Amino acid sequence: MFDKWLIVYGAVFAGGLVSSAALTPFFRFLAHKSGFLDRPADNHKGHARATALLGGASMFTAWILCLIAGVLLVAFGGVPEYFSETLPRHLSGFKSVVSTQLFFIVAGALLAVILGLIDDKWALKAKWKFLGQFVIALLAVTGGGIRINFFVDNQIFSYCVSLFWFMLLMNSINFFDNMDGLAAGTIAIAMGGFTVIAALNNEYFYASFAALNFGVCCGFWFYNANPASIFMGDSGSHFIGYLAAVVSAGITCFDKSVSLSRFPVLIPLLILALPLFDTAMVVMIRTLNKKPFWIGDHNHISHRFVRMGLSRKNAVLLVHLTSLIIALGALPVYWGDFKTAAVVILQVFLLLTVITILQICLEERKDAVEKVEKTQ
């Protein structure tokens, strides 16, 4: 039966990929016609010309069209004969999810895109952006019932952690979207990881949902990769950050029949390690420099790779490869015993530490060389 579900996940991924790849050029054209552009003077991304800024709307449109197609398929039972023994037994569960959770998930996604579009156009103050994010998180957590438990039987704790998680990821991906293809590629890798974990855990809805998100991000990435012809903007970063929060909070990463430890609850942190690590670092740096943490700068991990001498394209590639390496570590954490999981988590911590030390040391050496050259 598992091989049949792989076909389902592959079909969902392909649908998201094709839809996103087909719609993005239209939204790029629409952005240029309407003047919805990111101009070099208004940003710190480093691009040389005005670039279309409706990537978020493009991804959302592709995503919602695929969801509608999937819901209609489920509602009317249009199951191919090949899956006649596989899907029908799960359709009642799908319908239950569609009638409750999915409505609130879609509503939150729509609001995330709208909030981002408003911010892209009029540059909202931080307090209004945070308020909007809180409302979106509240909708998903209370209405959609998407909550994190961490083995603690306390509803208030669960609500608070879940609300924080949604706001954290929306802001983390917003911060992380600072180079061509960086955020789209990183979240594509994350969604691929979540698809695998959810599929292994027989969570069919979330595996399909993550596969759709995976496809949508990949389809958009073709146009967003260096040199980008369209940016996702805050609308896109809020949208995919929200989707990452939904999937990571919704899947169950612990199953006593599979894992011998409780470390799998940390799988979302592993799969999303780079954006979360980057956010923690820039917030710390901005706080130490007595600057508001929500004001953009060039202290992100990608910027540091560039200052080490890499091109922007190679810096993004290195971040993607690091994300993939860490995400692959989620599998032994999921399957392994306590010792295996502990070693993998320690390796991830040490990898991020090594990257940080290299970046700091090379930057200090570069600054020292520049000072010597100025004195000569």
What does this structure look like?
This protein is mainly alpha-helical and 376 residues long. It has one domain (2-375). The chain has 15 helices and two strands. The protein has helices spanning 2-34, 55-75, 88-99, 101-122, 126-143, 155-176, 182-200, 204-224, 233-250, 267-271, 273-288, 301-307, 312-328, 330-335, 338-375; strands at 37-38, 51-52. It has a two-stranded antiparallel sheet with strand order 1-2. Helix 8 (204-224) packs antiparallel against helix 9 (233-250) and helix 12 crosses helix 15 (338-375). The chain starts with a helix and ends with a helix.
Question: What structural class do helix, strand and pairing data support?
Answer: mainly alpha
First and last CA, distance = 72 Å
Helicity, as a percent range: over 70%
What integer value in Å does the Rg equal?
21 Å
Structural domain tally: 1
Order of helices and strands: HEEHHHHHHHHHHHHHH
Main sheet specs: 2 strands, antiparallel
Query: Which residues sit in consecutive blocks of at least 5 with pLDDT less than 50?
Result: none
Q: Strands of the biggest beta sheet: in what spatial order?
A: 1-2
Question: What is the strand content?
Answer: under 5%
